[in-house]
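agent> Task received from the user: take the single chain below, predict its 3D structure, and emit structure tokens. No templates, no multimer pairing.
agent> Plan: (1) validate residues, (2) run structure prediction, (3) serialize to tokens, (4) report one or two observations.
agent> Step 1 OK, no nonstandard residues flagged.
tool_call: predict_structure(input=
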Amino acid sequence: MLNKLAIPIALVTLVVIGFVRASPQDAEHVDAYHEQVATLIEAIPIDWEGWVGHEVALPQAATNLLRPNALVARQYVHEERGVSVTLMIVHCRDARDMAGHFPPACYPGNGWLIPEESGTPLVEVDGVQMRRYPFHRVAGKNERDITVYNMFAMPTGSTTVSMTDVRRLSSDYEYRLYGSAQIQIVIDGDIDPDLHEWILRDMHAIVAPAIEGVQNSGIDAGKHDGSGS
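)
tool_result: status=success, residues=229
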């Protein structure tokens, strides 16, 4: 008799768990969160403190891969200092969609080479860590170097430079519903490295309200804290 009851009881348990995880209240909270994050990302100023921005079109293949809830990609020019930088922030409803646009996967897949690293790959910007990725590309007689600074904002209230942390978050059904955001700051190789700190600080200030919105999901922050690579 016990064996005959085991399967039906297990099925009832799964149904109850599914109902709790997919309750209308949770769905409403998740939808409201995504709408708020999208609003904050779309409100990122196009002109800020001497920087003048204009939109940059991403390849349609990249957009299809990301399936973004919200996306801003801009080139900012500081005419007084004569420098430009590309800023991208994307929020995905499903954190798993980030994997294909992670710099070590995305840039080599588009013809960029990863040179031997020099210096520490981690930098701190206003108390937040970013990961530095140098890339080099040869196209005929033309060569170009860029440095990509990357980080993720998590709905648990943290930030990370680790794709492992994003995968860990996305392996949990409940947490996966909130997604995550990725921030990339791309600086051309002809810009003085001594200016990078100032550029990063200003770009981080531009996106800071959106990052805080991603972090402010109202879910438990302790479950998926950690560091990977």
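agent> Step 4: summary for the user.
The first strand starts at residue 47 and ends at 48.
agent> Done.
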